[in-house]
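Q: For a teaching session next week I want to show students how multiple molecules come together into a single three-dimensional assembly. I've collected the sequence lines for a complex. Could you give me the predicted structure tokens for the whole thing so I can convert them for display?
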Amino acid sequence: MTNLPQDNLATKADNNLRNSILNFLFISLQLAALLFIIVRFNIQVDTYLIKLVPIIGIGFMVHYWLPKQLKLPFFTSLTFVAICLIVGISAGLTLIGIGLALIALCNLPINYYLRLFLVFLAVAVLFLFRARILIIHEISVILAFIGSMFMLRLLIYLKHLQHAKKNPDFWDSIAYFFMLPNISFPLFPTIDFDNFKNTYYHKSEITVYNNAIKKIFRGIVHLIVYRYIYYNVIPTLNDIDGLYMILLFLISSYSLILRLSGMYHLALGILGLFGFDLPEIFDNYFFANNFNDLWRRVNKYWREFMMKIFYYPIYFRVRKVNKKHTIAISIIIVFFINWIMHAFQWVWIRGPYPIKLNDLLFWMTFGFILVLNSKYQEKYNKQKSLDKAKTWDFKKSFLLILRTIGVFLTMCMLWMLWSSASITEWIYLLTFFLKGTITQWLIVLAGFVSFILIIIPINYSFKKGALGKLVKVYNQSIEKFNLIFIALLLAISFPSINNSLNLEAINSLHISRLNSNDRESMERGYYQTLLNSDHISIELWQAELDKPRDWEIKNNAIDDITKPFRYKLIPNSKVQFKGATLTTNQWGMRDKEYALKKPENTYRIALLGGSVEMGSGVEDGDTYESYVEDSLNNTYNKNIEILNFSASGYHVPHNVINTREKVFKFEPDAVIYTAHTEEFYRINRKLTKLIMAGEDLEIDFLKEIEIKSGAKKGMCRLEISNRLKPYMGSIVKWGYEIIANECRKNGATPIWFYFPALGTNRIEDHEIEIELLARNAGFKIISGKNVFDGYKQENLKIAKWDLHPNKKGHQIIGNKLLQKINEVIVFD
Amino acid sequence: MKEKIKEILLAEFIEVENPDELTYDLALLSSGVLDSISILQLVDVLEKEFSIEFEPHELDKDLFDTIDKIASLVEAKKSS
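A: Of course. Below is the structure for the complete assembly, covering every listed component.
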């Protein structure tokens, strides 16, 4: 009898242990599946998440069993290890050191305002590094991390310290700044310090971990849906030609906010695995039915940050001066600050921030709409109903849906403004709405009415009927349902399963790549677009993040740079370009030395092309031109020379001028003109750029097209490009005919060699069209349409941010040319 | 105090068929029952009613989320 309490205690301890083990297995199993899915779908591959996967997995398993007092130190140590793994030990230790120093400054036992001043001073010094006024390598490479981890959080932390009765706990402070997932999510939720502390294991461990799993799962789903829209739904700007396409663009662009919510859920979920059960950050923002509601639902952390740090203090000051319009004035000031804070965040993470009017206009319009909304609410709708979930009537439901659609479409419009390259481009895009015919508008209206008619019964069912009950059942057993969904997600991460179910399309979502719009931005070097938003172009920004500053060609490698179609590489020069040495011969060719006069017993080929042919990003001698030349000389008992007349940025007009003025001085027996995917688009891009800059097009034929198209300086890029689009076929035809005719006149064989550019979608109709133009002009054809089939294109480009082929890519192209060249040239 | 605050909320800010549903521990801020504008309007009303002045940092969830918390805050202000 006396042993009974002890037995009970032992039994209870056994039960606790058993429950702990079961819970551990339950959560670990789900986590393992989710981490596996992250790897299979290459989620956040460019921001090192996959490198963090083992740390997260093993870290959770160790952390789970640690006593509570060791959990926070372990979490922080894990972050330190991850930092060193990602940025290297030396830079990692520097980052940790700077971080700890900043936290120490905040907690110095001196007057608050003196501390504030010292922190400000430290941040100002760091800013000198960000502005590249001071340069120390170890610091330069970690500035983006410092920016992302400290700059906004310091404001929150200092605000907390201002009113805190005592200094916060040491490990709370360290863990707040050094959050493990932050390393892989530069755009990180603006977590409040009080929230961070107060939600740490504020519920039972299993609830906290289950919530974490839910957030990770939701984040992955958002990111996969985002990827689907990003790859398959959002049209390229150049494809927008009327009402339907602009509507599709409008709606699909805004849907890309899923990327942000996906990243944030994932980051918060990872934090949850270590006990931080932070509240939801997004609250069904697509269902907002007024603008205050939207501001409350979308990125709640950011809203709370703005309210706490700026809105309330400003409101309390303004009301002393102006009682009547306090809220309106405060909102406008806060939205101006909102714009500044976004710029501040970008400057720290990314570097220089181009101040753009449309960005400011976006925030101020949003603020102004909120003011109107608030005024309306103040006047007509002051009281909030607690009973709204319980009642339903047709009129209310209809108006609610109408309001929700109204908010959604207004936000789509604003989002388009925010992500446009300029206000002119946004206005130009809006003109496509005017291009809709009456029939098209009637169809859109019918679709809109049908949509509302479908939604009303769904809304009823959700409030009063089966759907509501279903949601209730789901919420009650969410863990079990999640298991099923995770299993499904796991299944579709295997290509073999997708293939057997005829779901091959899902396999394309396993790869992280740029979509057509971002690829175009990358190709035209128009990186500014990525800086005016943190939605559409995040992919491109990530690709840019690692790009060395001296990646692009130096102007001192190019001669006659002011002549758009006559610029050339400087003879006898040696420069670093895209990470490789680029040497030119006495004629300004990226090639070995050749005599002007063709030697005896020599077959000479002139190669006309652009950056791929010039060998952007590969070493001298690793171009496919060199590879083919060496192989041919090893095969034939004859001296074979391939003279490389290519240069970065050359297209049809450059090659026409080269052919007329330079090529035949070298007496070639054959001329190979190279064409790639989007031949029309590339010329269009070049001409658009020149017209935008108001430059002289040099060639009469092109000047005529400029006049005929009506494209002129002052129009936005997109409008100029669209106006030129119908003339691209004539320009290519004109160019091909001149090159082929010049060849015939000089006794050389004209050869047209086509292969697709890496990372581009082949468009068969376009390939057929340009091949026909080449054939009609009299070229002999070598087609390398399928040259990259069977290869993983990611492995063939020079860098993740640059689509030019690497050495291996050049060899593959070279082999294709070698395989086919005998069909058009007889060497013996 | 709590009753008075509840009265103010029911009179000007919250519409409810059964007043008992507005409990003293119902989260007003974090659940979105009151939005940012209503909070500031409530601040104005409370300041007039109880002749007190709030500070910006006091509109935090920790101090202002429920009738219970608001009442404690008002009482603390009145007594200081």
